[in-house]
Amino acid sequence: MAYGENKIVRVIKGRRPKIVVIGGGTGLPVILNALKEQNAEITAIVTVADDGGSSGAIRNYINVVPPGDIRNVLVSLSDIPQAEKEIFQYRFNSSDNFFAGHAIGNLIIAALNEMRGNIFDAVQALSKMMHVDGRIFPASNEPLTLNAEFVDGTIQAGETEITSKDKRIKRVWVTDSDSDQTPEAVLPVLAAIMQADAVVLGPGSLFTSILPNLMIPNLGQAVRETKAEVIYICNIMTQQGETDHFTAADHVRVINEHLGGHYIDTALVNGAQIDMSKFNPADYDAYLEPVTMDFKGLREQDCRVITSDFIDQHSGLVFHDGKKVADEILNLAFEAYSRRKQES
C-alpha cells in the first residue's frame, strides 16, 4: 500500500487548501495530524526558542536549535509505520546516565544539523527520510533566546526562567543566541505565509510557543501582510505563569498588541463545559481553569468568533479535538480563497 492512499481528498479548484500552522508545544501535533487526514497542504512553522528538557540540554551541549517541538511535528506529519515512529520518539530512562531523558529523535536531529550545517536543511532531509506529508520549517535557522518584561518592570531571559518566575508577563521578544544580529526567518517560511489560504496560530503556550515566532521581525511582518485568514486557536485552559485568569479576548489582545494592530481575523474558542471533577489536583499547576469567553472584548478587536465544542476530554486532561478544529480551519481557508479570487 502506498503511503497516504486512504486520505480524504479536499481541493480548492484542483489544488489542496494551503494551511500554515505556526507554534510549538504538545497541542500543535494534534491539529497537524487532523489537517493531514483532511488532505490539506500543510506547512508547519515551529518555534526554536525552547530551552527546557532534552531540547535545552542538547542546545547547551552542541549549540543547536532545540529539536523537541520539531521532533513531535515530524512524527505527526510522517507516513512511516507506527513502530518506527515509536523508535524515533523513544526517550532513554534515568538509569542511562549519559543519555538520560534524551529522545532518540532529538539526537538524530542534532546529528543531521551538524552534518548539513544548519537546522533548516537538516529538517528537510529528515522530512524526506520520514515520508512527511507537508513541509516543516524551523521559524529561524539560528537558536533564539526568549526575553520577557513583566508587569513589574523586571526583565528575564530564557523560556524556563521566564515561566518559573510565576509573574504576569507584559511583553516578549527574541534575540539571536549567538550574535547581535536581528533574528530572521528564511525565505521559504515567508513565502509559505504569503501564499497560504489560512495562517493558524496555536494551540500552544501563548508567550512561549506562539509569540516567539511572531517576534521574529520578518516573520511577524509576513503575518501582518498576508491575505490569508489569520486564525487563532484559543487554549482551552489557562496556564500558570503565562495566562492566569485570561479570557479568550485577553489571548487575542496580547497577540494583537505584539503585532501592533488587529491582525487576528478569527478566533476558535471552546464553548463546551469542562468537567473539572476529572482533573487530578496534581495537574492544577499546569491547568488552572477553563478559558472564559468575552464576546465584547473580541468584537472590539475586530475578531470574528467561532465557538463550539472543540474539546476531547480524557485521562483527566483536556485536549483539542483535532478533527473538529481542522474542519473549521478548512472552511475558513475555502472562504479566504474565494474572497481573494473575487477581489483579484
Outline the structure in words.
It comes from Lactobacillus hominis DSM 23910 = CRBIP 24.179. The strands form 3 sheets. Strands 3-2-1-7-8-9-10 form a 7-stranded parallel beta sheet, with helices on both faces. The protein is globular and about 55 Å long. With 344 residues, the chain is α/β, with parallel strands linked by helices. It has 13 helices and 12 strands. It has a single domain, classed as Rossmann fold (3-Layer(aba) Sandwich).
Helix/strand layout:
Layout: E1 18-23, H1 27-37, E2 41-46, H2 53-62, H3 68-77, H4 82-89, H5 104-116, H6 119-129, E3 135-138, E4 144-150, E5 155-157, H7 159-164, E6 169-176, H8 187-195, E7 198-201, H9 206-214, H10 217-225, E8 229-233, H11 248-259, E9 266-270, H12 295-299, E10 304-308, E11 311-314, E12 317-320, H13 322-343
Parallel strand pairs: 1-2, 1-7, 2-3, 7-8, 8-9, 9-10
Antiparallel strand pairs: 4-5, 4-6, 11-12
Helix pairs in contact: 1-3, 1-13, 5-6, 8-10
How much of the sequence is in beta strands?
Answer: 15-25%
Largest sheet: 7 strands, parallel
Biggest β-sheet: strands ordered side by side in the sheet = 3-2-1-7-8-9-10
Report, as a whole number of angstroms, the end-to-end distance: 41 Å
CATH superfamily: CofD-like domains
Give, in order, the helices and strands.
EHEHHHHHEEEHEHEHHEHEHEEEH
**Which segments are poorly predicted (pLDDT under 50) over 5 or more consecutive residues?**
1-9, 52-63
CATH topology: Rossmann fold
Average pLDDT score:
86
Give the helix/strand class: alpha/beta
**Percent of residues in helices:** 25-40%
Q: How many helix segments?
A: 13
Based on CA atoms alone, the radius of gyration comes out at 19 Å
How many domain modules? 1
